[in-house]
């Protein structure tokens, strides 16, 4: 019989004086969790900039961001499922929620938010759904896939086939209202992810009321960056397709796409910079405040922040993940290539921020007299080291793109204005 | 104008409503007596660190009694050793939670190896047994998202092994490092003050296993309980009370170096 | 056709109702707030009984042992080791003598040196126990070869 494995022991190295039961219990997947929810919230906020504040230039990006946010949505709880020791009991959060726990609200807030985004998408795409359904209905010899598509479309319209001008106006109004309600809910969804950490009074690094706000800001930053990046990728793909099928009916020419693309990107990058300033200011405020007030825990925190985690925090997160992309976006004449590198760096920076909070918060002992070092499992040797290792993380990261691809079949992101 | 008579009248009228509601509560009490029964028990623990010799028999007994896999490093109770040198350094360790006791002078520093402090360099050295503090305001219970951990009416914090989802939030919330995952049941695990023994009128396994009387358990609601008497009359301390948890494991002879 | 705006909402409400119905059947009936507050008392009541039914392994009652092993008991009670409960060395009684019929005695050096490895810690009771250096004091030999654990004083030497 193989010896029993204690959860956490395999990836925790303990140093100096730690309590016997202390291990790194919240690992890579708990880094992924706020990272993914952050992307959801950020993407939604971006789409709302168009719908609520009427920033017209963002129209194309808005629809894209909305569907992408919806694709990311099921992925937000995925890291939690990977992390739970009893994943098959996850529904207990809905069955017997204990609302004094920050996690208990997750089920409800998450479900509410999901419903709201779905609702909004329905209004945005109703016209398209109806048109597709009607054109398929009239088609005489439907193939199997067309039959299925018709069935899905028909179901999704909820029988609302009215696409008169008046009805479309009503749809637009509804979208605006829903997007308006959605912003606070998106912020709440992510703010309380910050609250989950910020309210743990036993953890000296986590406990700060700034945590939820810091989380929201970095969420928006990461969400916007990912939308920009994915947008560029899809646009580039479209360019390739457009060049290939010059005669195709609904495609724009590569040049048209290119000019539309760079305009959207330049504008979005301004919002990215704005939110980055907020995020960095708050993080620095937190750091300065801790050093200045220097309570009991500061000795060990200082040794972690300026010592053991120096590279992770100051080089990886602040320099590579914040300062460098910040400069790249500020320099005039922003190009697509520079944007791609910049957004990648921003995403990396936000990921490192989550890492430094979650792992950094557990890198010192509750005794304040010892350290724990996290060794990320790369090659899994059992289910646990898969779930909470590199491969588990990659699984979570890849899932939204699969979902995005599937959703795109029903809710096409790019409906060219002249195509119908 | 408010006359005395008026005052009495309004007073009576004002009383009528609360009285009526009190009646409803009484009715509820007769219908569901188990909900209103207040047991006159609140279990607390007392550790006299001066008596502890660091033999770890308490840890051994606990692991066997409570089916915590013996050869794993996690444990419901443990003993820490503190050594202060004459030049002011503090060393502490608890190898395997002191399951095998402290049998040599080497201090375990984890990944940093071990360290020997010469007898003549020791200024102060002692042992401190630890276990769940069964807090009056347990932060671990507060953060459980599904109601799988709770405080019983006798003040003991338990985990429902059939309901716990294994999110580890409670483990993160405990400032004392008292919680861990059970390697077999894959749910949060912690000291129960040997709930099953207390309910049978027995004392906890660790209290019984200690040959030196360093561990005691008692009912703080009983003024004649010897433990209550010590807590009331002696100078006692608790661990990390700055977290506002109201820990219910009391210590005699503790020192500021104790974490 | 004007009310179509609310149709997805009806679907959402229907979904919520379904979840609530499932909840009604799934959640154990005794899951409620028991005790002083929702914060600390929200749980399944019957879990308390499950913990209550947890099997006791150690009797830690020397009187229980005395009934059959009075000879050993009487001797031990005269010795300084009287403070050590039988089961600390003889293992948990469980349902002895039925099951197991024999207990396994721990005669290892490791058991004895838990207390008797010399650690001269001034503020600890450990300093008051007679100790040896396990590396130098007849290493490799079981202590009980020379010492009688039930009569550990020097007169009891074998």
What do you see in this structure?
The complex is a heterotrimer of chains A (420), B (259) and C (158). Chain A is built from 14 helices and 2 strands, in the order βααααααααααααβαα. Chain A has 420 residues and is mainly α. Chain A has a single domain, classed as Formate dehydrogenase/DMSO reductase fold (Up-down Bundle), CATH 1.20.1630.10. Chain A has a two-stranded antiparallel ribbon with strand order 1-2. In chain A, helix 1 crosses helix 8 and helix 1 (28-51) packs across helix 12 (336-358). The radius of gyration of chain B is 23 Å and the shape is globular. Among the domains of chain B are: 4-36; 139-189, Alpha-Beta Plaits, CATH 3.30.70.20. By secondary structure, chain B is an alpha+beta fold. With 158 residues, chain C is mainly alpha-helical. Chain C has 2 domains: 2-52, no CATH class; 62-156, no CATH class. Chain C has helices spanning 7-26, 38-41, 46-52, 62-66, 70-78, 86-90, 109-116; strands spanning 31-33, 42-44. At the B-C interface, helix 3, strand 6, strand 7, helix 6 and helix 7 of B face helix 2, strand 2, helix 3 and helix 7 of C.
**Helical fraction of chain A:** 55-70%
* Helix content range of chain B: 25-40%
Instruction: Please tally the β strands of chain B and state the result.
Output: 12
Looking at CATH, which topology of the domain at 139-189 in chain B would you report?
Answer: Alpha-Beta Plaits
Termini gap of chain A? 67 Å
Count helical runs of chain B.
8
Spatial arrangement of strands, main beta sheet of chain B:
11-1-12
Question: Segments of chain A where pLDDT lies below 50 for 5+ residues?
Answer: 416-420
| CATH class identity of the domain at 139-189 in chain B | Alpha Beta
Q: Say which CATH homologous superfamily of chain A is assigned.
A: Formate dehydrogenase/DMSO reductase domain
Number of strands of chain A: 2
Please indicate the percent range of residues of chain A in DSSP E strands (runs of 2 or more). under 5%
Task: Assign the structural class of chain B, choosing from mainly alpha, mainly beta, alpha/beta, alpha+beta, or little secondary structure.
Answer: alpha+beta
Computed Rg of chain B: 23 Å
Q: Strand order, biggest sheet of chain A?
A: 1-2
Mean pLDDT metric of chain B: 90
Please state the second-level CATH architecture of the domain at 139-189 in chain B. Answer: 2-Layer Sandwich
- Measured on Cα atoms, how large is the radius of gyration of chain A? 23 Å
Which CATH architecture of chain A would you pick? Up-down Bundle
The profile of the biggest β sheet of chain A is: 2 strands, antiparallel
Shape, per Cα inertia axes of chain B: globular
């Amino acid at each position: 019989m193989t010896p029993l494995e204690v959860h956490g022991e395999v990836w925790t190295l303990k140093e100096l004086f730690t309590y016997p039961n202390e291990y790194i219990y919240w690992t890579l997947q708990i880094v992924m969790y706020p990272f993914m929810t952050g992307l959801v919230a950020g993407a939604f906020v971006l789409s709302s900039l168009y719908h609520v504040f009427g920033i017209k230039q963002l129209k194309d990006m808005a629809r894209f961001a909305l569907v992408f946010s919806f694709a990311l949505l099921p992925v937000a709880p995925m890291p939690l499922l990977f992390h739970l020791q009893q994943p098959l009991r996850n529904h207990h959060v809905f069955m017997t929620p204990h609302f004094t726990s920050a996690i208990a609200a997750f089920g409800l807030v998450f479900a509410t938010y999901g419903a709201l985004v779905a609702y909004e998408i329905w209004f945005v795409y109703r016209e398209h759904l109806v048109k597709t359904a009607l054109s398929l209905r009239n088609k005489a010899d439907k193939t199997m896939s067309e039959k299925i598509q018709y069935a899905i479309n028909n179901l999704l319209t909820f029988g609302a086939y009215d696409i008169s001008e008046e009805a479309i106006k009503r749809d637009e109004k509804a979208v605006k209202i829903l997007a308006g309600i959605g912003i606070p809910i998106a912020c709440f969804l992510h703010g309380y992810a910050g609250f989950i950490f910020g309210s743990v009074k036993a953890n000296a690094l986590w406990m700060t009321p700034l945590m939820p706000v810091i989380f929201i800001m970095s969420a928006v930053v990461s969400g916007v960056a990912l939308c920009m990046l994915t947008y560029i990728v899809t646009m580039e793909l479209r360019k390739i397709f457009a060049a290939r099928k010059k005669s195709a009916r609904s495609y724009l020419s590569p040049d048209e796409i290119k000019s539309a693309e760079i305009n959207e990107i330049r504008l979005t990058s301004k919002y990215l910079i704005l939110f980055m300033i907020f995020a960095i200011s708050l993080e620095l405020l937190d750091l300065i405040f801790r050093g200045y007030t220097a309570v009991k825990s500061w000795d060990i925190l200082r040794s972690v922040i300026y010592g053991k985690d120096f590279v992770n925090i100051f080089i990886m997160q602040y320099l590579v993940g914040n300062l460098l992309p910040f400069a790249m976006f500020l320099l005039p004449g922003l190009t697509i290539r520079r944007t791609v590198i910049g957004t990648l760096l921003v995403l990396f920076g936000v990921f490192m921020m989550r890492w430094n909070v979650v792992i950094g918060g557990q890198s010192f002992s509750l005794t304040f007299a010892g350290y724990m070092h996290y060794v990320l499992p790369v090659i899994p040797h059992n289910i646990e080291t898969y779930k909470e290792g590199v491969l588990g993380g990659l699984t979570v990261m890849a899932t939204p793109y699969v979902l995005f691809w599937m959703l795109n079949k029903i809710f096409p992101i790019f409906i060219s204005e002249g195509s119908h | 104008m408010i006359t005395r008579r008026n005052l009495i009248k309004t007073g009576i009228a004002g009383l009528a409503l609360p009285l009526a509601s009190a009646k409803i509560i009484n009715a509820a009490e007769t219908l569901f007596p188990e909900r209103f029964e207040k047991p006159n028990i609140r279990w607390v623990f007392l550790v006299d660190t001066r008596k502890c010799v660091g033999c770890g028999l308490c840890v051994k007994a606990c692991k066997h009694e409570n089916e915590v896999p013996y050869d794993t490093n996690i444990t419901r109770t443990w003993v820490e050793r503190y050594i202060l040198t004459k030049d002011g350094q503090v060393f502490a360790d608890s190898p395997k939670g002191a399951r095998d006791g402290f049998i040599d002078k080497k201090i375990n520093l984890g990944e940093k190896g071990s360290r020997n402090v010469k007898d003549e360099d020791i200024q102060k050295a002692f042992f401190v047994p630890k276990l769940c503090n069964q807090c009056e305001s347990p932060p671990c219970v507060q953060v459980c998202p599904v109601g799988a951990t709770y405080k019983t009416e006798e003040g003991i914090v338990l985990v429902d092994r059939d309901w716990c989802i294994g999110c580890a939030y409670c483990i993160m919330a405990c400032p004392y490092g008292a919680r861990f995952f059970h390697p077999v049941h894959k749910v949060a695990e912690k000291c129960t003050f040997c709930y099953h023994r207390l309910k049978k009128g027995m004392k906890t396994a660790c209290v019984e296993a200690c040959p030196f009387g360093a561990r005691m358990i008692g009912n703080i609601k009983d003024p004649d309980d010897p433990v209550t008497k010590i807590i009331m009359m002696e100078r006692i301390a608790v661990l990390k009370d700055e977290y506002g948890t109201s820990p219910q494991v009391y210590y005699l002879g503790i020192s500021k170096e104790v974490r | 056709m004007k009310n179509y705006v609310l149709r997805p909402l009806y679907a959402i409400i229907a979904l919520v109702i379904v979840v609530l119905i499932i909840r009604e059947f799934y959640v154990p009936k005794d899951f409620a707030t028991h005790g002083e507050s929702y914060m600390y008392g929200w749980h399944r009541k019957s879990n308390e009984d499950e913990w209550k039914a947890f099997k006791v392994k150690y009797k830690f009652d020397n009187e229980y042992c005395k009934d059959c092993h009075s000879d050993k008991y009487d001797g031990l009670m005269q010795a300084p080791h009287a403070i050590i409960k039988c089961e600390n060395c003889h293992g948990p009684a469980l349902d002895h003598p039925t099951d197991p019929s024999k207990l396994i005695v721990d005669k290892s050096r490791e058991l004895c040196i838990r207390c008797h490895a010399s650690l001269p810690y001034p503020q600890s009771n450990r300093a008051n126990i007679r100790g040896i250096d396990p590396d130098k004091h007849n290493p490799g030999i079981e202590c009980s070869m020379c010492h009688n654990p039930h009569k550990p004083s020097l007169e009891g030497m074998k």
